Description:
- Chain A is an all-alpha fold.
- Chain A contains twelve helices and no strands.
- Chain A is about 75% helix and about 0% strand.
- In chain B, helix 7 (about 150-170) crosses helix 9 (about 190-220).
Amino acid sequence: MSNSLKAVAWRKRSSKSELAVFMVWVLLLAFVSWTFQVMTQDTIWSFVTDAPAQFNDIGSRMIPPAWSSVHELWWPLWETINIATLGTLLGLLMAVPIAFLAASNTTPSATFIRPVALFLIVASRSINSLIWALLLVAILGPGVLAGILAIALRSIGFIGKLLYEAIEEIDADQVEAIEATGASRAQTMTWGVVPQVAPTLAGISVFRWDINIRESTVLGLVGAGGIGVKLEGALATLAWPKVTMLLILVLVTVVFSEWISARVRKALI
Amino acid sequence: MISGTQADSGTSLRTWAPPPFISNAGTRWALYLGALVYLVLAIGSVEVNWARMVLGLERGWAFVEGFLYPDFSSRWGDIAQGFQESLTMTVTSTALGVFLSIPVAVGASRNLAPTWIYLVCRAFIATSRTLNEIIVAIFLVAMFGFGPFAGFLTLTFATIGFMAKLMAEDIEEIQASQLEALRATGAGYLQVLDFAVLSQVMPRLLGLSLYRLDINFRESAVIGIVGAGGIGATLNTAMDRYEFDSAAAILWVIIVIVMFAEYSSGRLRKYIQ
Lengths: 269, 273
């Protein structure tokens, strides 16, 4: 009795499933190393091994930052903030109706309209704002307007998805209670659905605004206005001290917007 | 009887208005006014070149047409190469990023790591999360040369920050009693990690990894614009040549892959949890 107890050490799994888990790991590892080989078949390794030297070279050129160039950066910074803010507002205006059409409990037609609304949301989400900007700059020409529209088009998917999920999770009793008073469809929306999702919507919008500030700092790389235009110019002319100054400004802006967004969201909850 | 709030606020009995969002009238109006002033200033500073926009309408129409009739065939070689780079970049960077994020996540958990390691790991996470992928990609391309290898490093760096932050939050919320029980048996540090921590956070680790796989594919489509390989480079070239039908074909493939990835990763996550 005591002998058999000593011999059995506790294990998480039986030998069979341990082997299966091990095989899954081996296969995964083999798959990843195969993809790595496919990926790097055209890589020039001498560039890769040269990286530390490049790092030192660029690093030494970047210091000290060109502090004096900050004066010409305030206007691009203002543009960047406008791109993010106006873009979020415009995105919000388009996302709210789409979300109501996409939520299964508020959509007018689950067979025809809902799939279209869901497709719009997915299409907007799968295309990054930089790609939207690339398209819009080709169509509208370079400038802030292309940036605003790019941010707005990308925000539709984000706000739309989170909002329609919130609408689907509302308390049906409240809606039913409003309906029982004889309220019309519009009144049911205003008093039964909207009050339940309004705090969520406010939170989502502020969250997206914060992300948009971050994204609008690089939109200028493809010509869509804001501080990215200056970054593109500094990189193209290899003006590394200016690049450092721009990066510092971008970092401060991003951290500041994150702080504001966190404060506002805390106040909302 | 009418309820107290209605009588107090002095509104008429027939109409009822919900209480305003900000109770102090002064603050409320100051906020409205501030928002209005900002909007006027911001919209006023947007320069619109109407002549250029009229010219652009034709191109816009060409793009809409391209989206309806995408051209997959004439640039198929470039498109296939771009997607191969994007997909391989996605898989390798997610795998390496998740693997490296585990020690960082443990280090960034207050209940498992000493203070100085905690601070170092948190600083690393903050850096990785504040730096935009595009900016990181620009520097890595300058250092490692053009091509998917720089993109792979960019995505790996971003994955570590993302995964480590969310995993550390999860690790900090595990049941302390299990940690204590393991320690009481005399288990070593790694044994505690394996049996008390990993077993509690494993479902979330798998779920987040799948989610990140999804994000990495989307990002891999963008960083090519600055030379870090992948489908973004192909897309950029197509746009530069004004080949809107080829560009539309690329966008269609991206949308389909993202939809498929989102659907299957959602199914898998449901199956795991």
